[in-house]
Amino acid sequence: MSTRCANCGVESELDEAFEAGNQFGHPYCPSCILKTRGEDVTAVKWVFPIALVISVAGIWFNPEDDTGWAILNTLLFYVFGYASLIIHEAGHAIMGKALGLRVTNVQLGFGRTFMMVKAMDVRWEFKMIPFGGFARYIPIDLPWFRTKDFLTSFGGPLANLLVAWIMSWPIQAGAEFTKPVFGELHLWHVFLGTNLFSGLWNLIPYVSGNQPTDGMLMLRAPFIRDEQIKKLRLIRWQMECDLCLEEGEFDKALQQAEEGRKLAPDDPELASRKARALLGAQRFDEARSEALGVYEIESLSLEARARSSNTVAEANLQLDDEKLVHEAGFHSNHVMRIIPWDPEAKTVRAHLLIRQDEVDEAIPLLHSALEEESEPRPRAMMHCLLALAAHKKSDQSAYQAELSNARAAQPDHFMIAKVEKPAT
User: Fold this and answer.
1) What is the 3-state secondary structure (H, E, C) of the chain?
2) 12 - beta bridge partners?
3) What's the predicted TM-score (pTM) here?
């Protein structure tokens, strides 16, 4: 039994991946859910320039009326909200590291990543839409984790409230720089207000969607079971592997997988990540063998089995053995029945189609994958395959353009050298 997306029509056996995507509760696949949210955000973004024009016009034509200044200060509240968000998530990260937790990454906003930096051994991702965020942290050892989790959850609101409190001092002292500028633009007061709002709002215990606030996490912290903490320790190694894989540090990802397997030798998630690391390290035979071992685990979830199948298919295609292409087709078919919306699944499927000279079917898959993928390494792979497809169609200008795109995304990607061979 499969579920069909009411928007794009894609079908999958992974029923739990679908969500209600419209007011009628019709099921949408993960890809369409993201697109729908993006459309909602795009619509909301138009509110800001329209409101800005209205406020400036109001101030210009009727300076005696405070309405224009009120709208402008409200817009400023949202702009300063991003700065308050940085302070908030930094509070979580600093508190977590001070208490000895492993803070892996901080996400600021959502949508496409426009900047990524590494500071304090933490990856900071700045997203296009400046609303919401999270700091991801996990235990290194068991003692006192409940207390550490409580305090780390409190670290974000505490940082905002501290900033707001410090900013109130010059206001109370009547400092000149805290007074309105350009008329009635209250820069200092609005920034204080955004921090005060962020600090107090996040202390309210509730769950929005599937995302609990800091207040809810603080309430839950004393009741975390020992089994959950042990599971979190295992998840730590899985997350370490994921970060290394995203950054292209495949040897380090292998080390992290092996460290984690000392704690849980039979964990299929770590074995799956090891297979992906071997694939990235161009050890294709080993990657295929490891992924096949994971695929055969009976207790494996549908999604995990599909991702192992995807690794097998890509390893087979990279091995350049025609006997393995048929097996790659079997595994790719399985993947497309489970996670057809996944960019990696589309990429491997397109690679298979190009090998089978079905180029016209592969190209739309790759363009669709590029729309949904923001990380440079997988994007480089997609551009390499588009270059290969252009070469097969004898389109030299498209070939050169896609090869340039691949180099711009990830200059050291191994596939670039492979794609250059047909042209030489």
Assistant:
1) CCEECCCCCCEECCHHHCEECCCCCCEECHHHHHHHHHHHHHHHHCHHHHHHHHHHHHHHHCCCCCHHHHHHHHHHHHHHHHHHHHHHHHHHHHHHHHCCCEEEEEEEEEEEEEEEEEECCEEEEEEEEEEEEEEEEECCCCCCHHHHHHHHHHHHHHHHHHHHHHHHHHHHHCCHHHCCECCCECHHHHHHHHHHHHHHHCCCCCEECCEECHHHHHHHHHHCCHHHHHHHHHHHHHHHHHHHHHCCCHHHHHHHHHHHHHHCCCCHHHHHHHHHHHHHCCCHHHHHHHHHHHHCCCCCCHHHHHHHHHHHHHHHHHCCCHHHHHHHHHHHHHHHHHCCCCHHHHHHHHHHHHHCCCHHHHHHHHHHHHHHCCCHHHHHHHHHHHHHHHHHCCCHHHHHHHHHHHHHHCCCCHHHHHHHHHHC
2) 3
3) 0.76
Per-residue pLDDT tens for 112-159? 677 888 888 888 888 877 677 888 888 777 688 899 999 999 999 999
Residue 424: per-residue pLDDT: 47
